[in-house]
Design a protein that fits this description.
Blueprint lengths: L1 E6 L9 E7 L2 E10 L2 E7 L14 H10 L4 E10 L9 E9 L23 H12 L4 E8 L8 H7 L5 E3 L2 H10 L3 E11 L9 H25 L8 H8 L2
The structure holds zinc ion.
The site of zinc ion (ZN) has 7 residues, from helix 2.
Length: 248
Amino acid sequence: MRIGIIGGTGIYTYEGNMVSVDTAYGSVEVVHAVQGDHTVFFVPRHGAGHVLPPHRVNHRANLQALADCHVDRVIGITTVGSLREDIAPGTLFVPADFVDFTVSRPTFFDRGAVHVDMSQPFCPEVRQAVLAAARARGEVAEGVYACTSGPRFETPAEVALLRRFAHVVGMTLAPEATLARERGLCYASLSVVSNLAAGLQEVLPAEEIAAIYDRMRPVAMDVLEETIASLPRERACGCRGAFERGAL
Ligand SMILES: [Zn+2]
């Protein structure tokens, strides 16, 4: 089984061999490594060297590169702000659904009326594997991820609105999950809560956020490794056909 990982702030490198994959949407640096029964393909979401801010991430190239590497499943690692006081910085969060407030809305279908089914936003098989692996490592929260365009953080009024229906806020999940679905790839995410959103606490000093990253990086890597090890070789989910079912 070939598994794609898209790493974000906090998890940015992977041991393995780097290749450059040219896609119709741009070139992507992909690290590949054998892990047990699986081959892992790691893409740094913000480009090699972390050069792209959230609103400039080339999501189409990232997902196309993984599709071109013939991966079946993708795990996206994201960093989020908590919208709830009971989801503290340092918590692992496994999104169960998302609300998309991004404005760029990248798609692989720029022509024709194509509507992709998102009634089950994440692959149930991969999501359960991430959840089980995360639970084995400590405190885990589940819920709704609100996705904003960034690159700025939210205002207190935006946070007051978002926390009515979402648990965390971030800037990258929605386009990634959508494009994965459009390519028939399984997708689920593991998020690390780095701070409470604006207005819910005093602004955290950069050193404190960096300390949370340092503490959580090995935990997230362990969860990732355990998730990969626990995934069955064959897909029993419906993600591959979700696009055809949703298309008009
Ligand atoms: Zn699936």
